Amino acid sequence: SGTCTLREAVIVASILAKNSVPMLHSAAALLKIAEMNYSGANSIFIRTLIEKRY
């Protein structure tokens, strides 16, 4: 639906931070998120993907 609460974003981001994600998939996700309108949830996802160790 395009909406995500901050609580939902924190839960998904914590799962994302703990699991292994290929670097190219993360780069593609960052690109798509950056093209979206700003929201707090988007910034949480961006921060999580940038802070991951690859």
TrEMBL record:
Similarity section: Belongs to the bystin family.
Q: What is this protein called?
A: Uncharacterized protein
Q: Which residues form a coiled coil?
A: none
Q: Name one GO biological process term.
A: rRNA processing
> What residue stretch is flagged as signal peptide?
none
Q: Name one Pfam family in it.
A: Bystin
* Top-rank taxon: Eukaryota
TM region positions: none
Q: Listed GO cellular component terms?
A: cytoplasm; nucleolus; preribosome, small subunit precursor
Q: Which GO terms describe its molecular function?
A: snoRNA binding
